[in-house]
């Protein structure tokens, strides 16, 4: 990983290597989130000042280490302050072109002069390789290092701003400009990762937004970055974040916001999501991102937190052509599977998305912006709070708690609300209004004939079972005598205890057996008893703050729906993308299993794998 190793190196993050019971992949955070925006996209100094005030009032949600002036992280993501950028870049002899045709990003560089020189050379060489981009120059970002605590200062990066201009066709096409900037950033960061002496991290690189963040306390953000206190540093939207990281190590990169979002919560399904994303890279292509996308893999920064990885995926989905709300609805869907309130059109839309990508699930409030709009979304269980106010002068103030702007006059508030589980809100600055959950999702559902596509290309288990029953005769179901049953039970790892205490009450009373004993059986991989193959596979889920999950008693928010079959290109959704089979449960009875063996007729290919092995090759104890 980046900057791992001795503290005296060039890196601005320090993570110990995996050892004992410590694994850097278990780093988590839980935090305070705030957002303020003008509906009509009018930039104002007051928005930045209020965002900084919200951040100060979220200070109790952040954390400090043993030093009062070293924070876990604080930051602000806001729209590009055009006037300010023109002025400060002119001071270093760089004239910026028209708004929208240049990009500026804050770059964390190594702490050694040699590292800075090498990283800049590497970045400039990469920029020359990306068609349509031209380097304009660098500007050292003024910082007040004396307000940092000892730990934060030990790891403090050199921070500079880079300015890049769009040339040729890119100057007229902002989407292609943003896509080219992404290619540049990913290629440069991947090159920097190859050596511990050249850690390179871009907080953001965009023509629309800019991100100031660091290993700071909430009040320390504006003290450390005097840029944020300048009168001409104005914006129409600002997201702020105060980080409270659970069992974490010092880190500048892990502070929020990331490039599109800030997040309060955890992504509990993370390991599976990462594995799925890595495997999708094999068939990933995009017109907007072009052939150089292949050089950007892995798209996920594997040494980031769960929130940073979520942001990596949200970013590539958006740059490849989806709108920001569309990408969010796909990654963090509401509980639609067993809902009775959804229109058939909306249900088909969620079903189509579920064919393309599994949900990123866990308690979460996510705020997100790309400069053209701003939104917030809550996880399907609603396990994080989100309050918002709308004022007379067409501003929205949203936070993970009330009272973040104490001076707000009650008469100026025209609407108060909170996000409910699985719901979203979105402000489109071009339209100048707040859109509620239903409106956003109805628009998305109406944009594609998902129901038609599913009926033409999809397949569900019930239909497969029916077609098998009406055709060939069903395969016989095994029936056992007393001796055969005992052998079968032993073969499949059932114990006397499991039969008496778990199975008998279920068969006799039709309900789950209850008991107060903890499960002290060793993990299957270290057990000396023969164990069922299923004991070796557990889905890693809530480890920290979640209640138990139960698809029977909590059917309104939890489902075992499981799509199987090959996926298509994630970045280019097509009618065939929903050509998958949906199992409503992963448990296969003989009829369902036989239906899967007979899939050739439906155009799917199947293979049967022999799971037995000669006993002499086994690990006999």
Description of the structure:
The chain is α+β, with helices and mostly antiparallel strands and 621 residues long. It is built from 16 helices and 21 strands. Strands 8-3-9-2-15-14-16 form a seven-stranded antiparallel beta sheet, with helices on one face. A five-stranded antiparallel beta sheet has the order 11-12-13-17-18. Strands 5-6-4-7 form a four-stranded antiparallel beta sheet, with helices on both faces. Helix 10 crosses helix 12 (450-457). The longest helix is centred in the first third of the chain and has 20 residues, at 174-193. The model is unreliable at 1-8 (pLDDT under 50).
Structure in a nutshell:
This protein has 621 residues and is an alpha+beta fold. Helix content is 28%, strand content 17%. Mean pLDDT is 88; it is low at 1-8.
Write the layout of secondary structure elements.
Elements: E1 28-29, E2 32-38, H1 45-57, E3 74-79, H2 82-91, E4 102-109, H3 113-129, E5 133-140, H4 150-154, E6 158-166, H5 174-193, E7 201-202, E8 209-214, H6 220-224, E9 237-242, E10 245-246, E11 261-265, H7 270-280, H8 306-319, H9 324-331, H10 344-356, E12 364-369, E13 373-378, E14 387-391, E15 395-399, E16 413-418, E17 424-428, E18 433-435, H11 437-446, H12 450-457, E19 459-460, H13 461-470, H14 482-491, H15 496-509, E20 562-564, E21 581-583, H16 590-597
Parallel strand pairs: 19-21
Antiparallel strand pairs: 1-10, 2-9, 2-15, 3-8, 3-9, 4-6, 4-7, 5-6, 11-12, 12-13, 13-17, 14-15, 14-16, 17-18, 20-21
Helix pairs in contact: 3-5, 10-11, 10-12, 13-16
